[in-house]
Design a protein that fits this description.
Blueprint: E1 5-11, H1 17-26, E2 33-37, H2 40-47, H3 52-59, E3 65-72, H4 75-88, E4 98-104
Antiparallel strand pairs: 1-3, 1-4, 2-3
Helix pairs in contact: 1-4
Length: 115
């Protein structure tokens, strides 16, 4: 499992999911998985009374987000994908638009070329 990494991308605008997948393909990253997810703020806003300005910030969040993740043993391809996705989302500078991060994969089962 040397050099394997998992790229996680969380986006609030589901209309941009297809574009993120295109960028992954252009970066030669295949086999991404998409999971519908909900941010902590949204969950708390729905279940716990929240005070004024915090509620206004949370109201900008979409109902659900998409969490896209993919695993690659090519750090350069992950870097390329991250650069392009950051451009697409203006570096995720707007609050509640999303984020992305990479974590090392130390051990996995079922990853690799399929015949």
């Amino acid at each position: 499992m040397e050099n394997w990494q998992a790229l996680f991308i969380v986006i609030s605008d589901s209309e941009k999911t297809e574009r993120v997948l295109e960028i992954l393909l252009e970066s030669e990253i295949r086999g991404a998985t998409i999971v519908e997810s909900m941010g902590m703020g949204k969950m708390l806003a729905d279940n716990i009374p929240v005070f004024g300005s915090l509620r206004n910030l949370l109201s900008r969040q979409h109902e659900t987000s998409q969490t896209i993740f993919a695993v690659s043993k090519h750090p350069d391809k992950i870097e390329k994908a991250m650069e392009q996705i950051a451009k697409e989302f203006d570096g995720f500078q707007e609050p509640c638009t999303g984020m992305m991060f990479v974590v090392p994969v130390c051990k996995a089962v079922g990853i690799g070329k399929k015949e």
